Protein backbone atom coordinates (compact mmCIF):
# COMPACT_ATOMS: atom_id res chain seq x y z
CA UNK A 1 0.00 0.00 0.00
CA UNK A 2 2.99 2.30 0.53
CA UNK A 3 3.93 1.68 -3.11
CA UNK A 4 0.39 2.48 -4.21
CA UNK A 5 0.44 5.71 -2.22
CA UNK A 6 3.75 6.67 -3.84
CA UNK A 7 2.31 6.00 -7.29
CA UNK A 8 -0.73 8.06 -6.41
CA UNK A 9 1.53 10.92 -5.40
CA UNK A 10 3.04 10.86 -8.90
CA UNK A 11 -0.42 11.45 -10.37
CA UNK A 12 -0.84 14.64 -8.37
CA UNK A 13 2.73 15.85 -8.92
CA UNK A 14 2.16 17.11 -12.47
CA UNK A 15 5.32 15.38 -13.78
CA UNK A 16 3.53 12.59 -15.69
CA UNK A 17 1.69 12.56 -19.01
CA UNK A 18 -1.93 11.54 -19.46
CA UNK A 19 -0.89 8.10 -20.75
CA UNK A 20 1.49 7.62 -17.83
CA UNK A 21 -1.23 8.76 -15.43
CA UNK A 22 -3.59 6.11 -16.77
CA UNK A 23 -0.93 3.40 -16.48
CA UNK A 24 -0.22 4.42 -12.90
CA UNK A 25 -3.94 4.33 -12.02
CA UNK A 26 -4.15 0.78 -13.40
CA UNK A 27 -1.13 -0.19 -11.29
CA UNK A 28 -2.72 1.33 -8.19
CA UNK A 29 -5.91 -0.60 -8.81
CA UNK A 30 -3.97 -3.85 -9.16
CA UNK A 31 -1.96 -3.22 -5.98
CA UNK A 32 -5.08 -2.16 -4.12
CA UNK A 33 -7.13 -5.25 -4.84
CA UNK A 34 -4.16 -7.58 -4.42
CA UNK A 35 -3.69 -6.02 -0.97
CA UNK A 36 -7.38 -6.31 -0.17
CA UNK A 37 -7.22 -10.07 -0.72
CA UNK A 38 -4.28 -10.64 1.61
CA UNK A 39 -4.22 -7.80 4.10
CA UNK A 40 -5.66 -7.61 7.60
CA UNK A 41 -8.40 -5.36 6.23
CA UNK A 42 -11.18 -6.33 3.87
CA UNK A 43 -11.12 -3.45 1.39
CA UNK A 44 -14.16 -2.92 -0.78
CA UNK A 45 -14.62 -1.54 -4.29
CA UNK A 46 -15.79 1.81 -2.96
CA UNK A 47 -12.65 2.04 -0.82
CA UNK A 48 -10.51 2.30 -3.95
CA UNK A 49 -11.97 5.70 -4.71
CA UNK A 50 -11.59 6.70 -1.07
CA UNK A 51 -7.96 5.68 -1.35
CA UNK A 52 -7.45 7.87 -4.43
CA UNK A 53 -8.96 10.81 -2.60
CA UNK A 54 -6.66 10.07 0.34
CA UNK A 55 -3.63 10.10 -1.97
CA UNK A 56 -4.67 13.36 -3.59
CA UNK A 57 -5.05 14.97 -0.17
CA UNK A 58 -2.03 13.28 1.46
CA UNK A 59 -0.36 16.64 1.91
CA UNK A 60 -3.25 18.25 3.77
CA UNK A 61 -4.56 15.28 5.77
CA UNK A 62 -3.23 12.54 7.97
CA UNK A 63 -4.43 9.02 8.60
CA UNK A 64 -5.25 8.35 12.25
CA UNK A 65 -6.23 5.14 14.02
CA UNK A 66 -8.37 6.37 16.91
CA UNK A 67 -9.32 4.26 19.90
CA UNK A 68 -13.04 3.56 19.93
CA UNK A 69 -14.93 2.72 23.10
CA UNK A 70 -18.44 1.57 23.94
CA UNK A 71 -20.24 1.00 27.22
CA UNK A 72 -22.42 -2.09 27.64
CA UNK A 73 -24.92 -3.56 30.08
CA UNK A 74 -26.44 -7.04 29.89
CA UNK A 75 -28.91 -8.74 32.23
CA UNK A 76 -28.93 -12.56 32.36
CA UNK A 77 -31.89 -14.35 33.98
CA UNK A 78 -32.08 -17.94 35.31
CA UNK A 79 -28.32 -18.24 35.54
CA UNK A 80 -28.16 -21.33 37.76
CA UNK A 81 -30.95 -23.42 36.28
CA UNK A 82 -29.34 -25.22 33.31
CA UNK A 83 -26.33 -25.31 31.00
CA UNK A 84 -26.50 -23.23 27.86
CA UNK A 85 -24.75 -20.54 25.87
CA UNK A 86 -26.29 -17.09 25.44
CA UNK A 87 -25.46 -14.30 23.01
CA UNK A 88 -26.28 -10.63 23.18
CA UNK A 89 -27.36 -8.66 20.13
CA UNK A 90 -24.56 -7.63 17.76
CA UNK A 91 -23.06 -4.17 18.24
CA UNK A 92 -20.29 -1.96 16.86
CA UNK A 93 -17.87 0.17 18.85
CA UNK A 94 -18.51 3.32 16.81
CA UNK A 95 -20.22 4.63 13.72
CA UNK A 96 -16.98 4.62 11.73
CA UNK A 97 -15.81 1.21 12.97
CA UNK A 98 -16.72 -1.83 10.87
CA UNK A 99 -15.86 -4.40 13.53
CA UNK A 100 -18.89 -5.91 15.25
CA UNK A 101 -19.15 -7.96 18.43
CA UNK A 102 -21.52 -10.01 20.52
CA UNK A 103 -21.27 -10.69 24.21
CA UNK A 104 -21.15 -14.37 25.10
CA UNK A 105 -22.24 -16.05 28.33
CA UNK A 106 -21.26 -19.70 28.69
CA UNK A 107 -23.18 -21.39 31.52
CA UNK A 108 -22.03 -24.86 32.62
CA UNK A 109 -23.59 -26.70 35.54
CA UNK A 110 -21.05 -27.95 38.06
CA UNK A 111 -23.40 -29.30 40.78
CA UNK A 112 -27.00 -29.35 39.50
CA UNK A 113 -28.42 -30.42 42.87
CA UNK A 114 -27.04 -27.20 44.41
CA UNK A 115 -27.70 -25.08 41.33
CA UNK A 116 -23.94 -24.35 41.08
CA UNK A 117 -23.09 -23.06 37.61
CA UNK A 118 -19.81 -21.90 36.12
CA UNK A 119 -20.43 -18.62 34.28
CA UNK A 120 -17.91 -17.31 31.74
CA UNK A 121 -18.41 -13.89 30.15
CA UNK A 122 -16.67 -12.93 26.92
CA UNK A 123 -16.93 -11.46 23.46
CA UNK A 124 -17.19 -12.82 19.94
CA UNK A 125 -16.40 -11.03 16.67
CA UNK A 126 -19.25 -11.22 14.19
CA UNK A 127 -17.90 -9.09 11.32
CA UNK A 128 -16.33 -10.47 8.14
CA UNK A 129 -13.12 -8.41 8.30
CA UNK A 130 -9.85 -10.32 8.09
CA UNK A 131 -6.99 -10.17 10.58
CA UNK A 132 -6.91 -9.39 14.28
CA UNK A 133 -8.51 -6.56 16.20
CA UNK A 134 -6.73 -5.21 19.28
CA UNK A 135 -9.39 -5.22 21.95
CA UNK A 136 -9.37 -4.31 25.62
CA UNK A 137 -12.32 -4.53 27.95
CA UNK A 138 -13.45 -3.93 31.49
CA UNK A 139 -16.11 -6.29 32.86
CA UNK A 140 -17.95 -6.04 36.18
CA UNK A 141 -20.49 -8.55 37.49
CA UNK A 142 -23.37 -7.44 39.78
CA UNK A 143 -26.47 -9.02 41.23
CA UNK A 144 -29.93 -7.50 40.97
CA UNK A 145 -29.43 -5.69 44.29
CA UNK A 146 -26.33 -3.82 43.06
CA UNK A 147 -23.67 -5.86 44.87
CA UNK A 148 -20.51 -6.20 42.77
CA UNK A 149 -18.96 -9.66 42.58
CA UNK A 150 -15.87 -9.05 40.48
CA UNK A 151 -14.04 -6.56 38.28
CA UNK A 152 -11.81 -7.79 35.43
CA UNK A 153 -9.69 -5.99 32.82
CA UNK A 154 -8.28 -7.79 29.77
CA UNK A 155 -6.50 -7.04 26.52
CA UNK A 156 -6.11 -9.36 23.55
CA UNK A 157 -6.12 -9.75 19.77
CA UNK A 158 -9.30 -11.34 18.49
CA UNK A 159 -9.75 -12.83 15.01
CA UNK A 160 -12.83 -13.07 12.82
CA UNK A 161 -15.48 -15.41 14.31
CA UNK A 162 -13.27 -15.99 17.37
CA UNK A 163 -14.48 -15.71 20.95
CA UNK A 164 -12.51 -14.94 24.11
CA UNK A 165 -13.62 -14.84 27.72
CA UNK A 166 -12.75 -12.09 30.16
CA UNK A 167 -13.90 -13.71 33.42
CA UNK A 168 -15.19 -16.99 34.81
CA UNK A 169 -16.94 -17.41 38.20
CA UNK A 170 -19.25 -19.81 40.10
CA UNK A 171 -22.84 -18.85 40.95
CA UNK A 172 -25.81 -20.41 42.73
CA UNK A 173 -29.31 -19.31 43.75
CA UNK A 174 -29.64 -22.14 46.30
CA UNK A 175 -27.82 -20.97 49.49
CA UNK A 176 -29.45 -23.73 51.57
CA UNK A 177 -27.12 -26.25 49.89
CA UNK A 178 -23.98 -24.17 50.35
CA UNK A 179 -21.63 -23.78 53.29
CA UNK A 180 -21.78 -20.11 54.26
CA UNK A 181 -18.99 -18.37 56.17
CA UNK A 182 -19.71 -16.56 59.40
CA UNK A 183 -19.45 -12.78 59.52
CA UNK A 184 -15.92 -11.88 60.52
CA UNK A 185 -15.35 -9.26 63.21
CA UNK A 186 -11.74 -8.57 62.28
CA UNK A 187 -10.06 -8.09 58.88
CA UNK A 188 -6.55 -9.40 58.26
CA UNK A 189 -4.15 -8.49 55.48
CA UNK A 190 -4.84 -11.91 53.92
CA UNK A 191 -8.48 -11.10 53.25
CA UNK A 192 -9.64 -10.47 49.70
CA UNK A 193 -10.87 -6.91 50.18
CA UNK A 194 -13.18 -7.08 47.15
CA UNK A 195 -15.00 -9.92 48.90
CA UNK A 196 -15.32 -8.47 52.40
CA UNK A 197 -18.68 -6.81 51.88
CA UNK A 198 -20.02 -9.89 50.09
CA UNK A 199 -18.93 -12.15 52.95
CA UNK A 200 -20.55 -9.76 55.38
CA UNK A 201 -23.83 -10.06 53.46
CA UNK A 202 -23.31 -13.85 53.24
CA UNK A 203 -23.25 -13.76 49.43
CA UNK A 204 -20.26 -16.09 49.18
CA UNK A 205 -20.35 -19.80 49.98
CA UNK A 206 -18.58 -23.07 49.18
CA UNK A 207 -19.63 -26.50 47.96
CA UNK A 208 -17.62 -29.62 47.19
CA UNK A 209 -14.35 -28.67 45.53
CA UNK A 210 -15.36 -25.03 45.05
CA UNK A 211 -14.30 -22.62 47.78
CA UNK A 212 -15.86 -19.51 46.26
CA UNK A 213 -19.42 -19.58 44.98
CA UNK A 214 -21.37 -16.37 44.59
CA UNK A 215 -25.00 -16.44 45.67
CA UNK A 216 -27.36 -14.82 43.18
CA UNK A 217 -30.55 -13.25 44.57
CA UNK A 218 -33.38 -13.83 42.09
CA UNK A 219 -30.86 -15.84 39.99
CA UNK A 220 -30.15 -12.73 37.92
CA UNK A 221 -26.67 -11.55 36.86
CA UNK A 222 -25.91 -8.03 35.57
CA UNK A 223 -22.86 -7.56 33.34
CA UNK A 224 -21.59 -3.97 33.04
CA UNK A 225 -18.44 -2.53 31.51
CA UNK A 226 -16.87 -1.19 28.36
CA UNK A 227 -15.03 -2.49 25.32
CA UNK A 228 -12.32 -0.56 23.44
CA UNK A 229 -10.84 -1.37 20.05
CA UNK A 230 -7.53 0.12 18.92
CA UNK A 231 -5.68 0.48 15.63
CA UNK A 232 -8.52 -0.24 13.22
CA UNK A 233 -10.70 1.56 10.67
CA UNK A 234 -8.41 4.48 9.76
CA UNK A 235 -9.90 7.97 9.55
CA UNK A 236 -8.64 10.93 7.54
CA UNK A 237 -8.21 14.12 9.55
CA UNK A 238 -7.43 17.46 7.97
CA UNK A 239 -4.30 19.09 9.32
CA UNK A 240 -4.60 22.50 10.94
CA UNK A 241 -2.04 23.96 8.52
CA UNK A 242 -3.49 22.18 5.48
CA UNK A 243 -3.56 25.23 3.19
CA UNK A 244 0.04 26.15 3.97
CA UNK A 245 1.18 22.56 3.45
CA UNK A 246 -0.58 22.39 0.10
CA UNK A 247 1.02 25.65 -0.98
CA UNK A 248 4.49 24.48 0.04
CA UNK A 249 4.28 20.91 -1.26
CA UNK A 250 5.53 21.63 -4.84
CA UNK A 251 8.55 23.40 -3.36
CA UNK A 252 9.20 20.52 -0.95
CA UNK A 253 9.00 18.03 -3.83
CA UNK A 254 11.49 20.07 -5.83
CA UNK A 255 13.81 20.36 -2.82
CA UNK A 256 13.83 16.58 -2.34
CA UNK A 257 14.43 16.10 -6.05
CA UNK A 258 17.40 18.49 -5.95
CA UNK A 259 18.88 16.74 -2.90
CA UNK A 260 18.42 13.36 -4.60
CA UNK A 261 20.22 14.52 -7.74
CA UNK A 262 23.05 16.07 -5.73
CA UNK A 263 23.56 12.75 -3.94
CA UNK A 264 23.25 10.52 -7.00
CA UNK A 265 25.59 12.69 -9.10
CA UNK A 266 28.01 13.34 -6.21
CA UNK A 267 27.77 17.10 -6.75
CA UNK A 268 30.14 19.02 -4.44
CA UNK A 269 30.32 16.21 -1.88
CA UNK A 270 32.65 16.94 1.05
CA UNK A 271 32.75 13.75 3.11
CA UNK A 272 33.36 10.07 2.43
CA UNK A 273 31.78 7.18 4.31
CA UNK A 274 34.08 4.17 4.05
CA UNK A 275 32.07 0.98 4.64
CA UNK A 276 34.19 -2.07 3.96
CA UNK A 277 35.42 -1.74 0.40
CA UNK A 278 32.69 0.72 -0.59
CA UNK A 279 32.97 4.49 -0.44
CA UNK A 280 29.76 6.52 -0.15
CA UNK A 281 30.20 10.19 -0.94
CA UNK A 282 27.88 12.59 0.85
CA UNK A 283 27.48 16.12 2.17
CA UNK A 284 28.35 17.03 5.75
CA UNK A 285 25.43 19.43 5.96
CA UNK A 286 22.87 16.71 5.15
CA UNK A 287 24.38 14.21 7.59
CA UNK A 288 24.73 16.94 10.23
CA UNK A 289 21.09 18.01 9.84
CA UNK A 290 19.50 14.57 9.78
CA UNK A 291 21.36 12.58 12.43
CA UNK A 292 22.50 13.69 15.92
CA UNK A 293 25.26 11.08 15.77
CA UNK A 294 26.77 12.54 12.60
CA UNK A 295 26.22 15.99 14.06
CA UNK A 296 28.42 15.16 17.05
CA UNK A 297 31.17 13.98 14.69
CA UNK A 298 31.26 17.31 12.87
CA UNK A 299 30.66 19.65 15.82
CA UNK A 300 33.95 18.98 17.58
CA UNK A 301 37.59 18.61 16.55
CA UNK A 302 37.37 14.96 15.64
CA UNK A 303 39.29 13.05 13.00
CA UNK A 304 36.08 12.75 10.98
CA UNK A 305 35.78 16.52 10.86
CA UNK A 306 39.41 17.16 9.98
CA UNK A 307 39.92 14.34 7.45
CA UNK A 308 36.36 14.37 6.02
CA UNK A 309 36.46 10.57 6.10
CA UNK A 310 34.32 8.38 8.36
CA UNK A 311 35.24 4.71 8.69
CA UNK A 312 32.21 2.57 9.49
CA UNK A 313 32.99 -1.03 10.40
CA UNK A 314 29.80 -1.82 12.30
CA UNK A 315 27.27 -1.73 9.46
CA UNK A 316 26.65 -3.49 6.17
CA UNK A 317 27.47 -1.32 3.15
CA UNK A 318 24.09 -1.96 1.50
CA UNK A 319 22.28 -0.98 4.69
CA UNK A 320 24.42 2.15 5.09
CA UNK A 321 23.65 3.20 1.54
CA UNK A 322 19.90 2.81 2.18
CA UNK A 323 20.23 4.82 5.40
CA UNK A 324 22.04 7.67 3.61
CA UNK A 325 19.48 7.50 0.80
CA UNK A 326 16.74 8.02 3.38
CA UNK A 327 18.58 11.01 4.88
CA UNK A 328 18.49 12.67 1.46
CA UNK A 329 15.06 11.59 0.15
CA UNK A 330 12.91 10.58 3.17
CA UNK A 331 12.02 7.35 1.35
CA UNK A 332 12.83 3.74 2.26
CA UNK A 333 14.11 1.45 -0.44
CA UNK A 334 12.86 -2.12 -0.69
CA UNK A 335 15.11 -4.52 1.23
CA UNK A 336 15.13 -8.22 2.16
CA UNK A 337 13.89 -9.02 5.65
CA UNK A 338 17.39 -9.44 7.16
CA UNK A 339 18.50 -6.06 5.80
CA UNK A 340 15.35 -4.40 7.18
CA UNK A 341 16.34 -5.71 10.62
CA UNK A 342 19.84 -4.29 10.18
CA UNK A 343 18.42 -0.97 8.93
CA UNK A 344 16.11 -0.84 11.97
CA UNK A 345 19.14 -1.22 14.24
CA UNK A 346 21.14 1.32 12.26
CA UNK A 347 18.32 3.85 12.44
CA UNK A 348 18.34 3.44 16.20
CA UNK A 349 22.12 3.76 16.45
CA UNK A 350 22.24 6.92 14.32
CA UNK A 351 19.07 8.29 15.96
CA UNK A 352 16.83 8.60 12.92
CA UNK A 353 13.45 7.91 14.58
CA UNK A 354 11.30 8.36 11.47
CA UNK A 355 13.32 5.74 9.61
CA UNK A 356 13.17 3.38 12.58
CA UNK A 357 9.40 3.77 12.73
CA UNK A 358 9.11 3.02 9.01
CA UNK A 359 11.24 -0.12 9.49
CA UNK A 360 9.11 -1.10 12.49
CA UNK A 361 5.98 -1.02 10.34
CA UNK A 362 7.69 -3.19 7.72
CA UNK A 363 8.78 -5.68 10.39
CA UNK A 364 5.21 -5.90 11.76
CA UNK A 365 4.07 -7.18 8.37
CA UNK A 366 7.01 -9.64 8.34
CA UNK A 367 6.17 -11.43 11.61
CA UNK A 368 6.09 -15.18 10.95
CA UNK A 369 7.28 -18.32 12.74
CA UNK A 370 10.90 -18.06 11.46
CA UNK A 371 11.17 -14.27 11.99
CA UNK A 372 9.25 -13.46 15.16
CA UNK A 373 12.10 -14.15 17.62
CA UNK A 374 14.56 -11.72 16.06
CA UNK A 375 11.85 -9.09 15.61
CA UNK A 376 10.84 -9.52 19.23
CA UNK A 377 14.42 -9.12 20.46
CA UNK A 378 14.86 -5.99 18.34
CA UNK A 379 11.67 -4.54 19.79
CA UNK A 380 12.87 -5.18 23.34
CA UNK A 381 16.35 -3.77 22.75
CA UNK A 382 14.95 -0.58 21.18
CA UNK A 383 11.97 -0.14 23.55
CA UNK A 384 9.51 -0.40 20.67
CA UNK A 385 6.31 -1.20 22.58
CA UNK A 386 4.04 -1.41 19.53
CA UNK A 387 6.29 -3.87 17.70
CA UNK A 388 6.86 -5.76 20.95
CA UNK A 389 3.12 -6.23 21.54
CA UNK A 390 2.61 -7.49 17.99
CA UNK A 391 5.42 -10.01 18.34
CA UNK A 392 4.35 -11.24 21.79
CA UNK A 393 0.75 -11.77 20.72
CA UNK A 394 1.99 -13.74 17.70
CA UNK A 395 4.16 -15.89 19.99
CA UNK A 396 1.18 -16.40 22.30
CA UNK A 397 -1.01 -17.64 19.46
CA UNK A 398 1.72 -19.82 17.93
CA UNK A 399 3.82 -20.79 20.94
CA UNK A 400 3.71 -24.54 20.21
CA UNK A 401 5.43 -23.88 16.87
CA UNK A 402 7.72 -21.07 18.01
CA UNK A 403 9.20 -22.91 21.00
CA UNK A 404 10.63 -25.72 18.84
CA UNK A 405 12.46 -23.39 16.43
CA UNK A 406 16.19 -22.81 16.46
CA UNK A 407 15.50 -19.06 16.68
CA UNK A 408 13.72 -19.53 20.02
CA UNK A 409 16.66 -21.55 21.37
CA UNK A 410 19.03 -18.77 20.28
CA UNK A 411 16.79 -16.23 22.04
CA UNK A 412 16.73 -18.24 25.27
CA UNK A 413 20.53 -18.62 25.27
CA UNK A 414 21.42 -15.14 24.06
CA UNK A 415 18.69 -13.08 25.74
CA UNK A 416 17.38 -15.09 28.71
CA UNK A 417 15.82 -12.02 30.35
CA UNK A 418 13.81 -11.30 27.20
CA UNK A 419 12.73 -14.93 26.84
CA UNK A 420 11.69 -14.98 30.52
CA UNK A 421 9.62 -11.81 30.13
CA UNK A 422 7.96 -13.18 26.99
CA UNK A 423 7.04 -16.42 28.78
CA UNK A 424 5.60 -14.42 31.68
CA UNK A 425 3.50 -12.31 29.31
CA UNK A 426 2.33 -15.41 27.41
CA UNK A 427 1.23 -16.96 30.72
CA UNK A 428 -0.64 -13.78 31.65
CA UNK A 429 -2.39 -13.76 28.29
CA UNK A 430 -3.27 -17.44 28.72
CA UNK A 431 -4.84 -16.74 32.10
CA UNK A 432 -6.81 -13.78 30.72
CA UNK A 433 -8.07 -15.54 27.61
CA UNK A 434 -10.10 -18.72 27.71
CA UNK A 435 -10.58 -19.88 24.11
CA UNK A 436 -14.08 -20.98 23.13
CA UNK A 437 -14.49 -24.63 22.27
CA UNK A 438 -17.23 -26.10 20.13
CA UNK A 439 -20.79 -25.93 21.37
CA UNK A 440 -21.46 -28.31 24.23
Automatic annotation (TrEMBL):
Keywords: Signal. It comes from the Eukaryota. This is TD and POZ domain-containing protein 2. CDD domains: BTB_POZ_ZBTB_KLHL-like. Residues 1-18 form the signal peptide. Gene3D superfamilies: 1.25.40.420, Apoptosis, Tumor Necrosis Factor Receptor Associated Protein 2, Chain A (2.60.210.10), Potassium Channel Kv1.1, Chain A (3.30.710.10). Residues 269-332 form the BTB domain. It holds the Pfam family BTB. The gene is Tdpoz2_10. PANTHER family: SPECKLE-TYPE POZ PROTEIN (PTHR24413).
Amino acid sequence: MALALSLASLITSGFVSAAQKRAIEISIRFIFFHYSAKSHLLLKERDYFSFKIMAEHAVTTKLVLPDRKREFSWAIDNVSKFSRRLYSSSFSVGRECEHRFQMVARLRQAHPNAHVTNVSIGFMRTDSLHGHATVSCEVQLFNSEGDRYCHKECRWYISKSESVFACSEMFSDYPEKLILPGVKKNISFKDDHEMICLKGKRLVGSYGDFSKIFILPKDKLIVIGHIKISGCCPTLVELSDAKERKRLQPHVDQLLLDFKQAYENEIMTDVELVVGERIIKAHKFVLFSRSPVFRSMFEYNTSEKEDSVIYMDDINSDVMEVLVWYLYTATVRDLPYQDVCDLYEAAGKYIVPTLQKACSEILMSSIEIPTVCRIMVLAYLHNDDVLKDQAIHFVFRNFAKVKVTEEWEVTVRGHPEIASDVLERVCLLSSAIIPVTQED
